[in-house]
Design goal:
- This protein folds into two domains: 204 residues, Metalloenzyme, LuxS/M16 peptidase-like (Cytochrome Bc1 Complex, Chain A, domain 1, 2-Layer Sandwich), CATH 3.30.830.10; 179 residues, Cytochrome Bc1 Complex, Chain A, domain 1 (2-Layer Sandwich).
- It is built from 15 helices and eleven strands.
- The protein has a six-stranded mixed beta sheet with strand order 1-2-6-3-5-4, with helices on both faces. A five-stranded mixed beta sheet has the order 7-11-8-10-9, sandwiched between helices.
- The chain is globular, with a radius of gyration of 23 Å.
Length: 427
């Protein structure tokens, strides 16, 4: 089977500067725009307990003004040209990115560079942004589904940094100082941790020239080995909260993000809970009407990973939902067939090809390939690897990672499980 993924003139290139900055680009000359991201390999996982939430807080502060542009000017410059500038913080990375017309590339690169190199971190901005982050924390606390996921990861990773919430806590955020922030930047915002990824109508050489000059003064650093979490045994927790629904998250350990089985896991994730035709959606909602929302998920990091499922339902359906989930996952071979694997391959193939219509997605894919494997991974290569997954291998992985006896689970809401308050019956 042959797939036409990209126009023939699309060109991938990779350069590593002498100071360690990695630049990966996809030149697409028929477009009139470009999306570029500066990815630093630092996130909440790298924080010490007293730094909890500082990666995300720094991301906020970068937009509050620098030596050249005020906070208002940063916002207005991009808006006035129809582009945008944004950022996000993960557990192992922080990304600052923009989308702009190709003719505005130098302007957008200048704004981004000034933010990352010359932000002021004034006392007044620290105070105001602490309040903003506290409001953001409150927003997530009021979102039961998001809170359930946070509580699940806290239980799953136990006392490890991966289990801490990216936003921090009201107590930790309130204690941040300018000195603490500057020391964190000096340690982690270094050339060896930076990947520049670009997709759009800007040639590779121009991206290299632009950012080699801008980031020439960025300090060098040294990456240190990460401490891997210790695998916990089966663990279940109830969190009582006055909600209309119960929000259940459960899951198990998987593997590192560059593991060769990652495509197999994505296919399995698609089959189990990746859409309205998935096993969970059909069995829990369509066949029995027990839930409104249910899906599966997986997260992978440098050295570890997890997979899991989510379901939201009325408290009186707790035991019914639990029994159905246990029945499904106690013998997945009864429910997952070769035909479902082929459908999942088609779903992933279609999703990938649709995602390529966005330069944001193309940029992110380039960055992830560099961060995960240190190279450019083309869509064609990805599709070939997905097509090579065999049913027998898929089911072996399913049995390994979806064993109910190894699950960690968290239930948030008004509990009506009809049984032992410490733990529902083991599947």
């Amino acid at each position: 089977m042959v797939f036409q993924i990209a126009p023939e003139e699309t060109m991938y290139q990779r350069t590593v500067l002498s100071n360690g900055i990695r630049i990966v680009t996809e030149y697409i000359p028929h477009l009139h725009s470009v999306t570029l991201g500066a990815w630093f390999e630092v996130g909440s996982r790298h924080e010490l307990p007293e730094e909890w939430g500082v990666s995300h807080f720094i991301e906020h502060l970068m937009f509050k003004g620098n030596k050249k542009y005020s906070a208002r000017e940063i916002a207005e410059i991009m808006d006035n040209h129809g582009g945008y500038l944004n950022a996000f913080t993960g557990k192992e990375e922080t990304c600052y990115y923009f989308k702009a017309l190709d003719e505005d590339f130098t302007m957008a690169a200048d704004v981004l560079g000034e933010m990352l190199l010359h932000s002021l971190f004034s006392y007044d901005d620290l105070i105001k942004e602490k309040n903003v982050v506290l409001e953001e924390i409150g927003m997530y606390e009021d979102s039961p589904e998001d809170l359930a996921h946070d509580l699940f990861e806290e239980a799953f990773w136990a006392d490890h940094a991966l289990g801490r919430r990216i936003l921090g806590s009201p107590g930790s955020v309130g204690k941040f100082t300018k000195e603490q922030i500057c020391l964190y930047l000096e340690k982690h915002y270094t050339t060896d941790r930076l990947v520049i990824a670009s997709a759009g109508n800007i040639p590779h050489e121009r991206v290299v020239k632009e950012f080699a000059e801008r980031f020439s003064d960025l300090p060098r650093g040294q990456k240190h080995p990460l401490e891997s979490p210790i695998k916990n045994g089966r663990r279940g927790l109830f969190h009582n909260k006055n909600l209309e629904q119960v929000h259940l998250c459960l899951g198990n350990s998987t593997f590192a993000r560059n593991d060769k089985r990652r495509h197999m896991l994505n296919l399995l994730d698609t089959i189990i809970g990746g859409g309205v035709s998935s096993l969970l959606f059909q069995e829990l909602r369509e066949e029995r009407g027990l839930v409104y929302n249910t899906y599966s998920f997986n997260s992978s990091y440098e050295d570890v990973g997890l997979c899991g499922i989510y379901a939201g339902f009325s408290p009186h359906n707790w035991s019914k939902v639990w029994d159905v989930i246990c029945s499904l996952f106690s013998d997945l071979s009864k429910y997952i067939h070769e035909e479902m694997l082929q459908r999942a391959k088609g779903q992933l193939r279609g999703s990938l090809m649709l995602s390529l219509e966005s330069t944001n997605n193309r940029m992110t894919r380039l960055a992830r390939g560099e961060l995960d494997e240190g190279r450019i991974i083309t869509p064609e290569e990805l599709l070939i690897e997905v097509e090579q997954v065999k049913y027998i291998d898929l089911m072996a992985l399913a049995v390994e990672i979806y064993n109910p006896k190894d699950w960690t689970w968290v239930s948030l809401g008004q509990q009506n499980y009809g049984g032992d308050p410490l733990c529902p019956k083991i599947c």
